Each structure stands twice: as C-alpha cells, then as structure tokens.
Amino acid sequence: MESGDGSSKPSLAAMTCVLGDLSQPDGSAELTHGGAVVRAAVYGPCEVKMSKEILDKATIEVVFKPKVGLPRCEDKSRERLIHDVFEAAVMVSLHPRSSIMIVLQEMENAEGLMATGVNAACLALLDAGISMKFLVAAVVCFVKSDGSLDLSPETQRGQADLDIVASLTFVFSEKDLNIMCVSSTGKYSVEQYDSCLHLCREASKSVFKFFRESLERKLSKSI
C-alpha cells in the first residue's frame, strides 16, 4: 500500500476465518492470519468449580494449547494476557457464579501468534453469543533490523523472520480504540514504539470490520 507521500505503508496480511465449525463448544472460530492459525472454542456460561466461583460475576478461564508438546512459559503468558483482556471486555456481571472458558489451540505457529489468538477468541465469543461491553482487536507490529516496520512479515509457517529485532502486540477496544494492553519482545526506541502504536491503531479498524463481516456472513447463511 502506498501512503499519500508515495512512501510504502505497512498493511495487514489477509485474514480468513470459519465460525461455528465445532459442534461441542457453545461457540468456535478458526482464524488464519498470515502464517499463524489458531482455533478458539468457548464453553459457557456453565457451572464453575466451587474453588473458582465468584459470587457477583462469571469466572473467565483461558487455556492455550501449543501445537506440539506441553504448554511452555510463553503459552502461560498468553493465557494471562488473554484472560485479563476478556475479563474486562465480557459482561461478566450477567453470569454470576458461572464459568466462561476460552480454549485456544495453536494450529500453525508463525509471527503474530498472540494477536491471532486474541482475535480468534473474540470471534468465538461472538459466535457463542456472549454479551460483551465492547469488542477487542489485536494487531502486531514488527521492527526490522534496518529500522523499518512491518505488520505482515512474509514468513513460512513455523519459521521465524530473522530480520525481526522486536515485536509489539497491541490490543484495542472498539470503543475509542483505547489500548487495553501491550505485549512486546526485543529492543526498540520510543519513536519506534509510537510509530508501531499509530500503525496498529489504524490497522485495528480493519480487524473490527473483519469481525463484523465474518459474523454477517454466518448469520446470512443461517437465514
């Protein structure tokens, strides 16, 4: 994509998703974004273990399953981040003393897996009909070794881009595009952070549009 001054402007890779393809969960979504693929399943609201029961709101539980092997430290970090995001976004007060579980299965690992997981979870919650205060969208920006920024590095699935020196994943609420959280790796300058924030905030508009179009397509098929 070209910007107004003729310079190259980073743009998001194409996204595709399938909603409601699983029969057991209350809602599900398989999202492909670039080389990353995540399948999300939502269960609930349903009965919660007494040890996890909260009297005035639902308990949000998140499980992130890697493609191979047992969960690693980074998977547990993803669980905590996604939990905090959706505990704030879901209308948990509507379902006291119950559980809403989000299970994320990594299908293909690539740059931007965290953002793909957040977006897949949001789509699955929509598919399950869970009431939310606002939608959330995640966008990742990569800082290359030459200082350039990229929203969609051309990498093969399961392979890392060796030119990437830092990555910043921003999660935005649809209301006013406020930042809900930021997760980053690598080294970057304050100026690069600000540039990444601007790019990701603008790109999040496309993600929210994708959510609406995906849900509209499913609803139109069911009529």
From TrEMBL:
Chief location: nucleus
Family: Belongs to the RNase PH family.
Keywords recorded for this protein, A-Z: Exosome, Nucleus, rRNA processing
SUPFAM superfamilies, per the entry: Ribonuclease PH domain 2-like (SSF55666), Ribosomal protein S5 domain 2-like (SSF54211)
Pfam families (UniProt xref): RNase_PH
GO term, biological process aspect, one: rRNA processing
Species of origin: Batillaria attramentaria
UniProt domain Exoribonuclease phosphorolytic: residue ranges: 15-130
Superkingdom of source: Eukaryota
Protein name: Exoribonuclease phosphorolytic domain-containing protein
Cellular component per GO, a single term: nucleus
Family annotation (Gene3D superfamilies): GHMP Kinase, N-terminal domain
InterPro entries: ExoRNase_PH_dom1, ExoRNase_PH_dom2_sf, PNPase/RNase_PH_dom_sf, Ribosomal_Su5_D2-typ_SF, RNase_PH
Protein location: Nucleus
